Amino acid sequence: MEFANKEYFVLLLLLIPYVLWYFLYRRRNEPTMRVSDTAVFLDTPRSWRTRLIHLPMLLRCLAFALIVTVMARPQTQNSWDSRTTEGIDIMMAVDISTSMLAEDLKPNRMEAAKNVAARFIAGRPNDNIGLTIFAGEAFTQCPMTTDHATLQNLLHAVRTDLSAKGLIADGTAIGMGLANAVSRLKESKAKSKVAIILTDGANNCGEISPITSAQMAHALGIRVYTIGLGTNKVAPYPIPVAGGVQYVNIPAEIDEKTLQTIASTAGGKYYRATNNKELRQIYDDIDKLEKTKLTVQKFSKRYDVFAPFAFAALIVLLLEILLRTTLLRRIP
Fold it and tell me: Mind listing the pLDDT tens digit for each residue in 132-153?
């Protein structure tokens, strides 16, 4: 426990003159009676009131000390916890183009990809993991972090309607998605740096080609694993119509050759997932990657904990007043 205003503890020194004054004042004002001999009183038993005569004074001192403690603002400990763990640095790049709404995976490609990615993140609690999303352009949804609760929330918030709302250009810019992930990994000090690219289409836009991004990843020592998501034939795609949804079949347009080239250029591997089970197996395979040491720092916030001391001071004051005016009342 720490105290935000430790200087208030100096006030406790006031208890010294108070205790001295209490005993000196009491001695001067104690009623006396002259007797010829006190021997007769030596064996007289002391009553419990006599034994507790100084209890109100002790309670006042305790209440004062508690009030000073409240003024000093007791707080929980505020510290950085550094520890060395085993992990790697990973950037996940996920395609959010509108074709990810196709329902050849259940409930659709987007939700299946998010669910399996969340399971993958949960299984690697010590890794620095970040998230890039891309369609016609790319941006970082979450930088690399070990705060996986925040990462999971941001992952589940990913939607495919960003392009429909004009927040991001539609299309499939695989090269831009990979370049964004590489830019996040290039400053990493980890020995193992990995980018995982998941898409259901072919590169059809973007200022950087997928092969150029793969070459940059290779130059920076980043392994790239690519995942082609979707059926080998056609997939049902929902189209909103008046009063409901109409399904049309869309063909698979995965550019497997480009994804294979990316993976081979950057020392990774290409996978194809046509159903939920295959997608889970792919992430399980990637989960077997080597690990390296990294340092994790956790920050704990400070919280005021003065309430118990304030409550105790109130109870002690009420008890002192009760005893002083009832059981231990003195009549001069």
Answer: 999 999 999 999 998 999 999 9
